[in-house]
Amino acid sequence: MSDFFYLIAQQTINGVVMGCLYVMVALGLTLIYGVMNQINFAHADFVTLGGFAAYFFVKWMGGGYLLSILVAFLVGGCLGYLVNLMIFAPLRERGDELRPLIATIGVSVLLENGALIAFGPVPYQFDSPYDETIRLGKIFFTTQSLLVVIVASSSIAALYAFMKYTFIGKALRAIAQDRETAGLMGINQAFLIMLTIVIASAMAGMAGAMLGPILVLTPFAGASVIVKAFAIVIIGGFGNMAGTIIAGLLVGLIEAFTTQYLDSGVTDLVVFALLLIMLLVKPTGLIAEKKEENV
Questions:
Q1: How many degrees, rounded to 5, is the angle at CA 91 between CA 85 and CA 92?
Q2: Is residue 206 within a helix (H) or strand (E), and if so which, with residue range?
């Protein structure tokens, strides 16, 4: 087979790896928007703090990397619970939709600057023990990349099945469809909204733990990821899980191929050009569904 085929295959693998991570982050945004019709701007900081939680668990406490992913998952979930308890829930009781959005911007600034004070501006090198290279002819990837795909794919599949087939998942979809009717049916909206934020934040923390060995950890590490995650949510369709998954993988592939054939600096330009085209041509996203089928 020609070198061109191997090059295409190599970049496809690289794109899928990054795409899986982008999907994990973007699904949290999609989940929150689909159920609450809100955007959490502090989501990026859950990614960052999840990465730092994994880093310090491995470096300071001597824990294993796989266990650190679980730690990051729990840290992200706890942060999400606290944000809901202190911000979303009180403001939601007042029937205010704009203030929670503004409040999450404040939380984001607070967490970023808190991380900057605690960890400093110096980048942290987060090495993974899974750095063995696997070669298939001229195609190669690390065991870390394989781990990312396995963990991310399993998490995405589990979330999709949870939302599609479980009673709680169906209740969440009912809230997304018609919150007032869901309340009349006796669905505990406060608990389910809290659960939504916790799940979304936990996935962001887990993504941070897996991004740590790939990207350099800084207090603003999540910002670069969340920008693309927002683009993915818009391209895929707000509140649309299937669209988000497709768009996330698409953005990962665009990133890999533009880096290879054009320049790494052009990547964001191409992604946001696609975003603008989608807004002009198909503002509902890649997969336009009825409201009841979202999330």
A1: 90
A2: helix 189-211
Give the number of residues written for the chain.
295
**CA–CA distance from 210 to each of 71, 123, 179, 239 (Å)?**
12, 16, 35, 24
d(CA 133, CA 271): 29
Contacts for 243 with CB less than 8 Å, ≥ 6 apart = 235, 236, 237, 285, 286, 287, 289
* 134-159 pLDDT tens trace: 888 778 888 888 999 999 999 999 99
- How many Å apart are CA 182 and CA 187, to the nearest integer? 6
How would you write 215-241 as a 3-class SS string?
A: CCECCCHHHHHHHHHHHHHHHHCCCCH
Long-range contacts, stretch 153-159, CB < 8 angstroms, 24+ apart: 153/20, 155/24, 155/203, 155/206, 156/20, 156/23, 156/24, 156/27, 156/245, 159/27, 159/31, 159/199, 159/203, 159/241
Q: What single letter denotes the amino acid at residue 175?
A: I
The model carries a pTM of 0.88
Separation of alpha carbons 289 and 74, rounded Å: 32
Distance of CA 266 to the CA centre of its chain: 22
How many angstroms from the chain centroid is the CA of residue 196?
A: 14
Question: Phi, psi (5° rounding) for residue 204?
Answer: -65, -45
Q: Do 228 and 271 contact (CB within 8 A), yes or no?
A: yes
d(CA 210, CA 128): 9
The predicted-structure confidence for 184-232, as pLDDT tens digits, reads as follows 777 888 888 899 999 999 999 999 999 888 878 888 888 888 888 999 9
Query: What domains can you pick out in the chain, each with its CATH number?
Result: 3-293 (1.10.3470)
